[in-house]
Design a protein that fits this description.
This protein is α/β, with parallel strands linked by helices. Helix content is 37%, strand content 19%. The chain has a single domain, classed as Oxidized Rhodanese, domain 1 (3-Layer(aba) Sandwich). The chain has a five-stranded parallel beta sheet. It comes from Salinimicrobium marinum.
Length: 103
């Protein structure tokens, strides 16, 4: 897992044709806004989270975020244990994000 600042995150994603953005917040948090093209899988759903993660393509580069960066770091760690090689955590999470947002 790499911890990326929002600047590093934006730069890496813009040049990454193999990127997938993963939002691990709750549905309620997502309703407040989300990073465009992100897939939401709530880490608080426990076993359901793991079963949804298992369905993802391990060859992709994952850019993971939550509200503050703690849950996404945890999600990256879980994903690495499951065999995902390229996980990137957004430092400061959605609270620090100043890029595009969808409602």
């Amino acid at each position: 897992m790499k911890d990326l600042t929002k600047e590093e995150w934006k730069k890496q994603i813009s040049g990454d044709d193999n990127a997938m953005i993963l939002d691990v917040r709750t549905e309620e948090e997502v309703q407040e806004g989300y990073i465009p093209e992100s897939k939401n899988i709530d880490i608080y759903k426990g076993p359901e989270f793991v079963s949804e993660i298992e369905k993802l393509d391990k060859s992709k580069n994952y850019y993971v975020y939550c509200r503050s960066g703690k849950r996404s770091a945890q999600a990256c760690s879980i994903m690495e244990q499951m065999g995902f090689e390229n996980t990137n955590n957004l430092q400061g999470g959605f609270m620090e994000w100043d890029g595009d947002v969808q409602q």
